[in-house]
Write a structure and sequence with these properties.
This protein is α/β, with parallel strands linked by helices. The chain is about 50% helix and about 15% strand. It binds SN-glycerol-3-phosphate.
Length: about 220
């Protein structure tokens, strides 16, 4: 399973990348706002740190303008994935940009039918938003599972990028289902290492070690 970091925080991305935990990055207009940085500048910095795909999102609503923005974003670095919203215009732009050889991540997916359309338009990644479905009392993980089934039924090659991942349980469940990628905030990725039994076990070992009176170094 690939881990993408859902963030435009260069320092946090760098830290995780040094540990080999970063297969790519996803950004969106809200994350750019949170970073307080210029989109072109911060995305360029991220692309220089991370070898894998870095998603940068267009903000135009009409396909011709989306295509123009997508081409501009793709100029930032060779590892840019142009992020397009799952609208009819977004699908048109997806078809054109993938035809030109760009990597495209179709975002804001909330149904299996939308995921089928994105695959048919040639998307490299589809981003179903798990947490935002949970927010409205629907089962976000059920959508990941349904898309996995449908894509496998028809051998659709678009990668399932489980997005809006908010908890460690989301990560484990997406992995169990077989999502190709999860994108999660840095703090969720760091929390994956935590377990109370690990802490308790470590305390016990250290207590016993002290009683031996020994030293390793
Ligand atoms: O990259 C988009 C997505 O991951 C958003 O997450 O938590 O704002 O729903 P969230």
């Amino acid at each position: 399973m690939k881990f993408f970091v859902d963030s435009a925080d260069v320092a946090a991305i760098s830290d995780l990348n040094a540990l080999g935990m970063v297969d790519g990055v996803t950004t969106n207009p809200s994350l750019i706002l949170k970073s307080g940085r210029d989109i072109l500048e911060v995305t360029k910095e991220i692309c220089a740190i991370v070898a894998g795909p870095v998603s940068a999102e267009v903000v135009a609503l009409e396909s011709a303008a989306m295509i123009a923005e997508g081409r501009r974003l793709a100029e930032i670095a060779p590892n840019i994935a142009v992020k397009l919203p799952l609208t009819w215009d977004g699908l048109k732009a997806c078809k054109v940009l993938t035809g030109e050889g760009f990597t495209v991540n179709v975002t804001l997916c909330f149904s299996v039918n939308q995921a089928i359309l994105a695959a048919k338009a040639g998307a490299s990644f589809i981003s179903p938003f798990v947490g935002r479905l949970d927010d409205i009392n629907l089962d976000g993980m059920e959508l990941i599972s349904d898309i996995r089934t449908v894509y496998d039924n028809y051998d659709m090659k678009t990668q399932i990028l489980a997005a809006s991942i908010r908890s460690v349980n989301h990560v484990a469940e997406a992995a169990r289902i077989g999502a190709d990628v999860i994108t999660a905030p840095p703090e969720v990725i760091r929390k994956l290492a935590e377990h109370p039994m690990t802490d308790r076990g470590l305390q016990q070992f250290l207590k016993d070690w002290e009683k031996t009176g020994q030293k390793i170094l």
